Amino acid sequence: MNDFHNSPIDHFPDISKITFKAIDKAFLKVILIHVFLVFGLLFVGLFFLVKHEIKDEFPEFYPYFFLGLFVVFMLVLALKLVGFKKRKYAVREKDISYKSGVFFKKMTTVPFTRIQHIEVDEGPVSRLFKLASLSVFTAGDSSDDLEINGIKKETALEIKEFISQKIDE
Amino acid sequence: MNNKFDFSQFSHQSKKGILVIYANLLFKFLKATWILVFLFFKDFSRFPDYVILYIYLGLGLLLIFFFVRAYLIFKNFQFKIDQGYFVLQQGVLKKSITSISFDRIQNINFKQNLIQQLIDVYQVNIETAGSNKTEISIKALSFQEAESLKKQLSSGEKTAISFEDELEEKPFLKISPLELLKVSLTENHLQSLLIFVALLVGFFQQLKEVFKSLGKDDLIDDYLKIDNSAFQESLILVFILFVLLLFVAIISSFVRVFLLHFNLTVFIKNQAFEIHQGLLTKKSIILKKEKIQHITISHNPIKKKLGISFITFKQAVSGKVNKKTDKLIRIVGCRKEQVEKIKELLFDCADLEKSKREHSDSYLKYRMYLRSFFFFLILNIWFYAGFDNGKIFFSNILLVFLVVFFNELTFKKRFYKMDDEFLLVGNGSIETHLTYLPFYKVQNIKLNQTFFQERKQVADLVLQTASGKVKIPCLPLSEALKIYNYTLFKAESSKNPWM
User: Fold this and answer.
1) Between 20 and 30 A from B210 (CA), which of A12, A19, A91, B192?
2) How many CA atoms lie within 13 Å of A132's alpha carbon, on the beta-carbon side?
3) B3 burial via Cβ count (<10 Å: 0-12, 13-18, 19+)
4) Which fold has domain B17-161?
5) What is the value of ipTM here, to two decimals?
6) What's the confidence (pLDDT) of residue B161?
7) B358-493, which class in CATH?
8) pLDDT computed for residue B159 by the predictor
């Protein structure tokens, strides 16, 4: 018991003082492709809906339906663009953190000691840009754990390796 | 050690087990087909005699079929203990063998449903760590067999548990029916009513499906329409309905409490709680100290007067089983000294009482009133659109008082306290809930901030444990960060087992 220390601590590592890393720039393209895909489908759907249903009932108004969807599209696009810059992560010696959100800011930290398992996934679009997502799972509600989208696959695997090592220690 | 029973050879359950399995099969069958049976019997009198004969014959065959099946299940269900492994062989057509090493066994619980109680056998559930597929339940063992099996299985545990403590069989807590009556009368009747209504709605939906399939779905809708217009017209009816609901609420909380907590007995053994309770289904649960993630002590004004409160234990469940009932274990009717004892045993938090009570930022109040405002907006739009009678708007006056009362109360009861090891969070409106959480049990921690909160420099904090969340809303940002950092420090530096 000679090497037992118990000196008082008055300073705890501060999460607000560390610099968070931004996720990979290429992931913006992935987000944009997703948004364009979804809205492309919506526009096609609306087009057919207008052609068969709405045009007969509201002959004067039907262009406004397109305008409405276009406004929503622009808003979502703007939100995704601004939101992209807010997606940040940080790996410390003993935990991993992720923060995101423009109007609803969120920050999550998971200590390595509580991690049950780690997953690295690649989506079909992400794979084109050699990007991956890293998810860590704890014993808590699995839906509420931490997921970092859009980091280089090598980085994701490196982090996974790093955490696995730390857990085994 | 009690070694009366030798489990080294494959053995069957008690013969009475056939009956339990049989009843179980029949019950499952009835549950799946009760609507059909009901519809069938409605027209029973209209069938000619020879058809009825066939029906009886078919029914008889079905009963025999289930009996044979139960017998086969029983015959093929065998278990033994073999060199530190519990081996189970089961399956009639598709045989399977499961073997579990002793150190993976987490809990052994006893259970008795109505039939098992009648024929005096016990169901033994063996919980294991890891996947949920390895949950084993042996349907029928005599008490001695069950106890002996439990002892032999636990003897291999790494943390060698001494069974000497069991000599001291004096219960730590025992609730008599009279006390239980007190408990049930002081329950949150509104909650009981909601549960009852939810059950009723489920039943109703099922019935509606049937009528729909018969092409008679207007029947119920018509009935509802009549009810609705009458409701609008007569205040007396509303009053009668209110009294009736109150009555139903009290009865349903009475039934709920007695079903769940009848004969509640708690023992403290080897740093674990052993809880026995239940009327129709008796349950014995062993709560291990390290598996308990956080506890909530609750009371309401009347319970406080009587000096009783109920304690909810949240325990971590093995694997990915998301059975809420297993996570949440509640004991009712604890007196003050018992609450203190439990607190002392689980969490040594004497310092906590001395530390300062911190309240949420007044932004929380602002947010509550904002939400109430939207509630009123939607309510009044509904009044405007759905009712012809203008008098309905007067209900706003009553509601405003209620909402103000509840908001103020909720805000007042929201607080938190912390010492070096524990966090205490208080919340509730009429009821008061005090949640005790050791920092090192936290699995992950979240800080949420909306745009408006950011301007006011406040944030919501969510601490996630292996059995649920503990939230502290609207803290000053600096405070929230302080707790955030401290929790992480505790979780990362702790060597205590958290599960």
Assistant:
1) B192
2) 16
3) exposed
4) PH-domain like (2.30.29)
5) 0.86
6) 41
7) mainly beta
8) 39
